[in-house]
Amino acid sequence: MKLKQGQVIRLPIRRIGINGEGVGYYQKQVVFVEEAIPGEYVSARITEVKKKFARGEILRIQKRSSHRISAPCPIYRQCGGCQLQHIDYPMQLRLKRELVEEAFSRYADRTPLPIQETLGMEEPWAYRNKAQLPVQRQGGRIVMGMYSPSSHRLIDMKGCMVQHPETNQILDIARQTLTDLSISIYDEGKHRGAIRNVVVRYGFETKEAQLVLISKEHPIPKEDELQKELVRRLPQLVSLVVNHNPQRTSLIFGEQSRVIWGQETMAEELGGRTYHLSAPAFFQLNPNQTSRLYEKVATAAGLTGKETVVDAYCGTGTIGLWLANQAARVIGMDTVAEAIADAKMNAKANHIDHAEYHVGAAEDLLPQWIAAGFRPDVVVADPPRTGLGEAFIQTLLRTQIPRFVYVSCNPSTLAKDCSVLLKGGYQVRSIQPVDMFPQTSQVESVVVLDWKRDS
Question: N or C: which end of the chain has fewer CB within 10 A?
Answer without folding.
Answer: N
